[in-house]
Amino acid sequence: MFAGTGSDVGKSIVAAAFCRIFRQDGYQPAPFKAQNMALNSYATPEGLEIGRAQAVQAEAAGIPCHTDMNPLLLKPSSDHTSQVVLNGKPIGNKDAYDYWRKGGEKLEVRGERIDYRQEVCDAFDRLASCYNPIVMEGAGSIAEINLKDRDLVNMSMARHAKADVILVGDIDRGGVFASVYGSIMLQSPEERQLIKGIIINKFRGDMRLFDSGRKMLEEICGVPVLGVIPYYKDIYIDEEDSVALEQKRRQLAEGKVNVAVVLLRHISNYTDFDTLERDPRVNLFYTNNTADIQQADIIILPGTKSTLDDLMELRRNGCAQAIQRAHREGKMVIGICGGYQMLGQTVNDPDGIEGSISSLPGLGLLPIHTTMTAEKTTRQVTFLFNGQTCQGYEIHQGVTYSGEWREVSGERNVSGESMVTGDHCIGTYIHGFLDNSPVIEHILRDKYHGDCPSSEKRSGLQRDCPRDLQTFKDQQYDKLADHVRRHVDIERIYEILKS
């Protein structure tokens, strides 16, 4: 298990690296995280939902992702509530206090009492019967002692799995000595015995400057430092943590195609834009500044966990009007998932699936209407774009359809649409839509006026997508594995695993 001194210390990336390393060394690894809290999720081949990080780690391990790799997913819908996804299916919304204090591992859902601890342990056991080793990931800090009695994902899971725990600390944020020492000392004696090593992550500068610090850590903690991993900039691995979004670009740039992703309060699946962001012709930035939106060449409305709430906020802060004006001026507008729903004529929620807002007019850029439904669509999809085969996945609540909304014999007469195009406007439910080269070439057509880079320089992608996207990803996993091998004592880790 790679556990952490806090959130965003690099646990997910380190776990992905070891999934790749173990695969390269002839093993059959699989990732596992008992409980994940993220809005960035992924659809399994069976059409079920898991956290994006475990899907990435499974890809690094060279195996299909499965719900057993992330049996419990919490998708925040506000500061106080989250949708609970168990074994790939949503089972309802829970208040954070109810989840953590009043019920924790056992809560009632639709009259049924669910033992979450048993569910995640069963998922681990099934996975461990098929793969070896299991590369486990903790969540946040392992030293949140006020929540320790309800812990499902950190040391309680390590005890169940009899895991060797490697503690990951982030030196870039400062205070690494205190955070590592404190994280270990706040464990029970039994749990402290499970912590077999320390990895210091995100180091900047001359590694020799930390030689004495490494020795000091080992002396005060009584645990070996297995490696110090330098910060990297030239390896591209999908990240799911919202902290990574805060580090994205926020402004226009000259000489490139400026792509503005509208910054929503409940933005989800922002990894949809990673491939486009890496294209050297593009400056992709996140903003809710109305002037920047109007000056951009392409405007993207991303996915959201709360379509109606974010649509109301867009009208309040002026972004809705800015998008409409930019579209009238000929700018390309693209909507993904919840953003697609917003581009239509109306968004209706008669059953209160999202909350108290029952209906709002959309931006009116596409001739569609959306009605929220309790049932969630989760599936991987193959689609044609400009005659070429592309791939992606859908995760959404709601049905979007063309034409007038009407009642027929008490039932809504709807025809779901996964993609609708209009005058310089595209709306789609398909995540990964912008990972496909035919789509990127279409939206950048006539907008880039510089010397067009060769296809080999476009983020490692060529025109025959999606095969080359997978080639690019494989190259990144191999680069990540090489980077970690150079700076971590892999042989020592194998000795720990065999002891």
Can you walk through the features of this model?
The protein is of the alpha/beta class and 499 residues long. The protein is built from 17 helices and 29 strands. It has a six-stranded mixed beta sheet. The longest helix is centred in the last third of the chain and has 21 residues, at 467-487. The chain is globular and about 65 Å long. The two termini are 15 Å apart. The relative contact order is 0.11.
Itemize the secondary structure elements and their pairings.
Layout: E1 2-4, H1 11-24, E2 30-32, E3 35-37, E4 41-43, E5 49-51, H2 52-61, E6 72-76, E7 81-86, E8 89-95, H3 96-103, E9 106-109, E10 112-115, H4 116-128, E11 134-136, H5 155-161, E12 165-170, H6 176-185, H7 189-192, E13 195-203, H8 211-221, E14 225-230, H9 242-245, E15 257-262, E16 267-268, H10 274-278, E17 282-287, H11 290-295, E18 298-301, E19 303-304, H12 307-317, H13 319-328, E20 332-336, H14 338-342, E21 346-348, E22 359-361, E23 368-385, E24 388-402, E25 407-408, E26 411-412, E27 419-422, E28 425-428, E29 430-431, H15 437-444, H16 467-487, H17 490-498
Parallel strand pairs: 1-12, 2-11, 3-6, 12-13, 13-14, 15-17, 15-18, 18-20, 20-28, 21-23
Antiparallel strand pairs: 4-5, 6-7, 7-8, 9-10, 16-19, 21-22, 23-24, 24-29, 25-26, 27-28
Helix pairs in contact: 1-2, 1-16, 6-8
